[in-house]
Amino acid sequence: MTTLTREAARRRYATIALAIPLAVLALLLAAQAALLPLLPDPVASHWGLAGEPDGFSAPWTLPLVTAGAGIVVTLLIGLAPYLADVPPARGGAMSYRLLAALVWAETGFIGTLMIATFVPQIGLDDARDARLPGWWALIGVAIAAVLALLAWRLVVEPPRAGEDPEQPAPIALRASEQAVWLRTASMSGAGIALAATAAVVTVGAAALAAHADLRVDGAIGGGTLLIIAVALLLIAVLAAGTAFRVRVDGDGLDVRARIGWPRVRIPRDRIRSAAVVDVNPMGEYGGWGWRYSVNSGWGVVLRAGEALRVVRTDGKAFTITVDDAETGVALLNGLIARDAKETGR
Questions:
Q1: Of 294 and 150, more confident
Q2: pTM of structure
Q3: Which contiguous run of DSSP H or E holds residue 310?
Q4: Of 52, 117, 176, 212, which has the fewest CB atoms closer than 10 Å, so is most exposed?
């Protein structure tokens, strides 16, 4: 397997996941801009299952969609390793391959659909005469899959640091002694920036689509309502998932969002062990927020770095990235040790 230094792997990732897709999208955008005078006004912007247009907008919205759905999304995904607060010594190989594959898949799919919706309208006087066969979407999916696999193979994994953090000694507690550990876990600036940017882009797309619907049809269509719903959902997720209260006490581990939901409560008698771990959001969980990893289970991943991970008695793990995780782990393991001593296990 090819190995590179971290910096060399990073440069290759930048070329594959950013430079090449952005160049392709820029060429597509330039071609669309040059061909705008040949399009009808309005143009078809949405198509029914039969391939007939059922939504219309101004011609300039097509390049705008290419820029928003293509270039902006590429930047959001491709720049994630640079925005994430992950020191160079930590791993990120999986994230490089995954992100590059996502970018190439998105570029291939968006590029195919933009060409498929643009070309049939060139030279038409009325956009209602255009047709878009459904098999174009299948071609887009196939191209996306092939490009994703190619990007995965082209990106080289950087060296990874494999040592786990040193584990703290359990806190010794007397039989009747009570202790509590409280912390607030907050999302990193990079995570908030990415989530907020995604929300702004989606809200902007919803506003643009609503304006186009009202201008052409006098009413907001179902597709636009779906975009608005997605925008509202993103805003709700952003509000609920940027900060969590973390509590360790005699009852176990309690993690709840600042607004009260979502919440995870793991009773002390359901916890087998606790440990301090080093988390890479993109490399291990594929992003920030409420996440799931095949290897690490569920987690509230708000930033890179130290985290508290508990393993339940059924073997399932739960992780929360939080400062001073060592103290929380030491207290949990101290409570577990006291229980074991009292029960003779």
A1: 150
A2: 0.53
A3: strand 305-312
A4: 176
